[in-house]
Amino acid sequence: MTPAARVQAAIELLDAAVAAAREGGAAADTLIARYFKERRYAGSKDRRAVRDLVYRAIRRSGERPASGRAAMLGLAEEDPELGALFDGSPHGPAPIAAGEEAAPAAAVPRWLESRFDPLVGPGEWPALLERAPLDLRVNLLKGDVDAARQALPEAEAAPLSPIGLRLPEGWRVEDSEAWRTGLVEVQDEGSQLLSLACAAAPGMTVVDLCAGAGGKTLALAAAMGNEGRVVAADVDRTRLGRTAPRLARAGVGIVETRLLDPLKELEALADLRGGADLVLVDAPCSGTGTWRRNPETRWRLTPDRLARLVKLQSHLLDIAVELLRPGGHLVYAVCSLLREEGRDQAEALCSRRSGLVAQSPPIPGGRPAGPGLILSPGHDGTDGFFVARWRSPC
After folding, report:
1. For domain 134-186, which CATH number applies: 3.40.50.11600, 3.20.20.60, 3.40.50.1970, 3.30.70.1170?
2. Catalytic-role residue among 198, 210, 285, 335
3. I want to staple 392 with a disulfide (CB 3.0 to 4.6 A). Which of 45, 243, 324, 373 is the partner?
């Protein structure tokens, strides 16, 4: 592909990403994979160059652009060499017309600016779009951190997590023996800290209420030494179905999965009501704390969707309280930096469930935010999270 053809390919992919964001379609990574599967003639350098252009444009555009061309024109305004490739050559983009509109640069969509937690001000917003590091959690069921460091000599200790490692960007951990044998699991350091905030211990009965594909379920089971009971529950059959092979590779044998019906969750969990030592609610959220991994999600979020998520989070917290035994612990987490999903949600639970005793999550890093802590890329170098912990009255 010529340099101009790469630009045109990026424009086509951005058009697809804009449409997918508007209509709830596939993620940008999936769109890129499909695009090049149909274009086998594109070499590895072409694929890397096009992907880089696509993500540069996505990271630059806080608001959903009018088109892929508008997004790329925004980049071209800041990069004259890129602008010169709009030359009308074969397979390249048409020349830039006078007055043609380019997408403006912004880290945060305008309608969200006032909704960030006050601790995460505009000075931290650029960090939300930086490239995320490759973090690993050491699976203590298969070995310790020293063993993982020996197996992966390129890795460094994670800055905050005592069970974390960090690899250089672009490292293919799935090709390593350490990953294949279950010694390490890919997991952002912030997610590792959330699991540590649970303080899970051997013999506990634990409910992971929004387990998804089981990333934190695995961490909880490892912290329990594979002794006790973990119920991994979710309403998404596809994501929950991905748990089994991960459990097998990690050597975990104490997890059972349960598929829940939305708004009927307690019916499927009736046998656990009042009996859980620990309930983790890693709730569905806006994902504002993970923009550095999925920057196009900024284009998908709307006020209506955010309102539905906040309502769902409140519903899940009330379910979690019902599952706790006297003296049990509830941990609430969202990969969001918005006040209404974090500290406001936690404060609202304290108001309507006044018997709960707020406790500081026992983790390094973060800043106090109401009853919980907030971690952010700009302050902690992790994905953005809010986490709070309570003890049920005895």
Report:
1. 3.30.70.1170
2. 335
3. 324
